[in-house]
Design a protein that fits this description.
heterodimer, A: about 210 residues, Four Helix Bundle (Hemerythrin (Met), subunit A), 2 domains, about 70% helix, B: about 120 residues, 3 strands, about 10% strand
């Protein structure tokens, strides 16, 4: 027992699997217990230190990481929300423009026909139907103009919006002015022409509206 | 403040310009309703006009004859008329008609014509 074995390094303290078990046991039993304990302790420390991350996270770092995650998620939600709001607005605007264009075609057809004809007692019902149709369409034009105006607010299409608003005012005076709803209505080809021109111009303006703005 | 509710007090279907057009026209509204109501107001009193209680829409011929006619035939100046009336509505579509009434009143010339009834006021 005088020749004390040198202290084993952790990587040396591995049982030789290729050697017979008895030989390993004999070798192990020949080592002092204290040396074995020291070797195991050293091995445990080495292993545990190798499993730990290189730097421990401080509270500040952890909070910052959470903050970044929250900001990222919020931004994603916000941009998604904005995207859908814009898509919805664009769809609403497109629908209102289509409706306004259809109404314009309708009023053009009815009003031109109305102003080309003389008042005739025999056509009283037809005339009244035309008068109702013109008044109703003008009111609906007002509804859609307001809708388009609210969608285009703060956009660059203000000159087009102004044209649409002026159209509403002009078509009202032209189509329902003078002898409208009167038995003394005087047919006017000029008025019919003005109504048709006004309607065609506004349809071109509606088509030129940039929904992306 | 006195109130003139066009739909309830005058007609649900105001249409046309003159008495000769029959129905509830602008001349009838002006001569039989608006003019007496304005004349009956006390100095600081205002006439509250409701546009949309049951009425679906108006034509320019009715509005210009009914309102601007007050100025055109010299019953009241446009400034006085605008000071004496308060036009109201609950449906946003009627803002358009309100603006048109104001424009017609502002654009009409005082005593531009002498009024000649197209038919008896009682019709």
């Amino acid at each position: 027992m005088g020749n004390k074995a040198p202290p084993l390094e952790a990587d040396v303290c591995i049982i030789n699997s290729s050697a017979p078990i008895d030989a390993n046991v004999a070798e192990a039993s020949s080592l002092p217990v204290a040396d074995i304990v020291d070797a195991l302790k050293q091995l445990t420390e080495t292993l545990s230190s190798s499993l730990q991350p290189p730097n421990e996270l401080t509270l500040l770092q952890a909070s910052f990481a959470v903050f970044i995650v929250v900001i990222g998620a919020s931004s994603a939600y916000f941009f998604n929300y904005l995207h859908w709001r814009m898509a919805e607005k664009k769809q609403k605007l497109s629908g209102a423009c289509l409706a306004l264009s259809t109404l314009t075609s309708g009023i053009e057809s009815v009003a031109v026909n109305y102003w080309l004809r003389e008042y005739n007692e025999k056509d009283k019902l037809e005339t009244q139907a035309a008068e109702i149709s013109i008044k109703t369409k003008i009111r609906l034009i007002s509804t859609y103009t307001r809708l388009i105006s609210s969608c285009l607010k703060n956009n660059i299409a203000t000159s087009e919006m102004q044209k649409i608003e002026n159209f509403q005012l002009e078509i009202f005076d032209l189509a329902t002015g003078d002898g409208f709803e009167s038995i003394s209505k005087i047919p006017s080809k000029t008025k019919a022409m003005q109504i048709s021109n006004l309607c065609l111009k506004i349809k071109a303006t509606i088509l030129s509206l940039d929904f992306g703005t | 403040m006195k109130t003139l509710n066009i739909g309830r007090d005058f007609s649900l279907d105001p249409a046309g310009r003159f008495f000769s057009d029959e129905g509830d026209n602008g001349e009838k509204f002006r001569e039989n309703f608006l003019k007496p109501a304005i004349q009956a107001l006390k100095p600081d009193e205002k006439l509250h006009i409701i546009l949309d209680d049951g009425v679906e829409s108006y034509g320019s011929s009715f509005l210009s004859e009914g309102f601007a006619g007050m100025v055109k035939y010299g019953y009241i100046s446009s400034q006085n008329l605008l000071e004496k009336i308060v036009i109201d509505y609950s449906d946003a579509d009627f803002e358009f008609y309100k603006n048109k009434i104001i424009t017609y009143i502002k654009n009409s010339k005082f005593k531009e014509e002498e009024y000649k009834p197209t038919r008896s006021k009682e019709s």
